[in-house]
Amino acid sequence: MIRVALADDQLLVRAGFRALLAAQPDIEVVGEAADGEQALALVRERRPDVVLMDIRMPVLDGLAATRGITGDPALGEVKVVMLTTFELDEYVFEAIRSGASGFLVKDTEPDELLRAVRAVVGGDALLSPGVTRRLIAEFAARSREPAPAAALAELTEREREVMALVGMGLSNQEIARRLVVSPLTAKTHVSRTMVKLDARDRAQLVVLAYESGLVRPGWLG
């Protein structure tokens, strides 16, 4: 069973998500929270696999609550998906930087929501190609001269190459075509890179690729 927690200050939003998720045979809703403090307490108590977290909430907003989750080693297995009203929400960049595995607009199609929950549990980042490229453009605009990352020394040359392609917004299929390998091989390289760098998911690899200097703004096309 995939255990899901809901954090949103709108009761109707939570009720709609709960009804959809609870109807699935492989998903269990383990609790709800109306603000960020309640969300943190709920996650610490129930240890869900996924938290659907609204960005804008009273008392403690979703970004601060997300940092509280991703910064706690005891909650390392918990994935956070941010909920936003608009796809171009100004806080999307900060949400990914805070450790969220991705984000969803609240009026997303039901099938997409279910796919998203299952995807992040599998270790995938919930970022469409268009969103990924906007995220990368934002990193490019904000980037400063990166400090060398000692952790990259643990990567093989091929893993560095794969990480750079992830950082440039390529999917596993696109990486496979670029490197002339199978999609499974590309996925394996991505997974090994995440393990070596202790990255929570693919979204964090994008962050690390820029912070380490492995990908530079001038490479964007």
TrEMBL record:
Spans through the membrane: none
SUPFAM superfamilies cross-referenced by the UniProt entry: C-terminal effector domain of the bipartite response regulators, CheY-like
UniProt keyword annotations, A-Z: DNA-binding, Phosphoprotein, Transcription, Transcription regulation
Domain Response regulatory as annotated: residue spans: 3-121
Top-level lineage group: Bacteria
Pfam family, one: Response_reg
Descriptive protein name: Response regulator transcription factor
Organism lineage string: Bacteria, Bacillati, Actinomycetota, Actinomycetes, Kitasatosporales
